[in-house]
Structures are given as C-alpha cells and as structure tokens.
Amino acid sequence: MTKFTLYYFDGRGRAEVIRLLFALSDKKFEDIRIAFDKWPEHKQNAPGGTLPYLEIDGKKYGQSSSLGRYLAREWGFYGKTSLDQLNIDEIVDDIADYRTGAVKVMFEKDDAKKAELLKTHTEKTIPEFVTKMEKKVSANKSGFLAGSACSLADLALFDIMDGMSMKYDNVFASGPKVKAHMEKIAALPKIKAYLAKRPKTDF
C-alpha cells in the first residue's frame, strides 16, 4: 500500500484541496501540520523550500497544483475526456489567479495601501470572480463543473468559496448557483464526514 504524508502549516490554505481529494477517495494519509515558528528548521527538507509538499513512499514532491492534478488523475477526479480536463484546468487556474490576489491583500504591510487593496478586492475582485464561477456552474446541468461527477475543479471551487465566505460578507450576492454548488459538495457523504472532524484553524 502506498504511503502518503502531507506537509503544510496548521491551516487549510494551499493544502486543503489535496486533503479533500484524500477524503473523497477514502485514501489514508498522514497530515503533518507545521507551526509557523518551526518552519525555518523544516524549510531545508521541502522541495523548492515551499509548502505544501507530499511524500509518496518516501519521495518528496512539491507544488500544490501539480499534486492536486496528479492525485485527481490517479483516483478518477479529473474528468473523462480531454475537454473535461481542459475545463477543469481552466477553472483551477482561475481559482489560483484569484488566490494570488487575495494573498497579496492579506500580506500587505502598509495600512493605507492594504485598505485600498481590500476595498478593490471586496467591491470588484470578489464579485467579478463569483460571477465568472456562476457562469461555469450554470454551464453544466449536472450541478458539477465538468462531466457528471465531482472533480478536482469542484473541490477547488468549494475550497476557495468556503474560505471566502468565512472571511468576507455577502460573497454569494452574484452567485446563487455557486452557493448551491458549495452546499452540494459539502453534502457529499465523504466530504461531509471529513468536514465534521476537520480541525478548526485561522486560515
């Protein structure tokens, strides 16, 4: 049996989609959560000096997007056709672009600039992103984003909206179907069981 060990900080962040894939596939893994103050001593062990990384039978692999795509392909959550996979990749990359902007706002140190960035983020970036995802959800009658079953794209959208709705108000104003999609994924039995026992974290 393949042994998986996931390394990340004690939060959801860029590792949560990977954890959701493990939950949905009912695969066992060790979830190593590194405290921020312990990260410097662990950094030399991480591929490229970044988190998350996944150890597979003792060999380490980095880059969260690459890990998500690998596991999704291995376990059947990457669509059935090349066009499904293209659709999944497009959505996952849209989400990655949004996350990059959100992280920039979060880590801005200048208070005045941060307030300006936050205003743009909440008034423009979030509504535009949710509207884009609303169109993606509406395009597929199955209620999933690609094909007729849950895929990597569905987990990625669930994760980003889960975090967004915890941090900001009224994020579903332009996306009622996005909200319904989030509820649909949360209700999948294996995801529901995982969420019920997921550690409470700040991010």
Describe the structure.
The chain is α+β, with helices and mostly antiparallel strands and about 200 residues long. The chain folds into two domains: about 80 residues, Glutaredoxin (3-Layer(aba) Sandwich), CATH 3.40.30.10; about 110 residues, Up-down Bundle (Glutathione S-transferase Yfyf (Class Pi), Chain A, domain 2), CATH 1.20.1050. Helices cover about 55% and strands about 10% of the residues. It contains eight helices and four strands, in the order βαβαββαααααα. A four-stranded mixed β-sheet has the order 2-1-3-4, with helices on one face. Strand 3 and strand 4 form a beta hairpin. The protein is globular. Keywords: Eye lens protein. It comes from Mizuhopecten yessoensis. Pfam families: GST_C_3 (PF14497), GST_N (PF02798). InterPro entries: Glutathione-S-Trfase_C-like, Glutathione-S-Trfase_C_sf, Glutathione_S-Trfase, Glutathione_S-Trfase_N, GST_C, GST_superfamily, Thioredoxin-like_sf. This is S-crystallin SL11.
Short synopsis of the structure:
The chain is α+β, with helices and mostly antiparallel strands and about 200 residues long.
SSE topology:
Elements: E1 4-9, H1 16-25, E2 30-34, H2 39-42, E3 53-56, E4 59-62, H3 64-75, H4 82-107, H5 111-138, H6 152-167, H7 176-186, H8 189-197
Parallel strand pairs: 1-2
Antiparallel strand pairs: 1-3, 3-4
Helix pairs in contact: 1-3, 1-6, 1-8, 4-5, 4-6, 5-7, 6-7
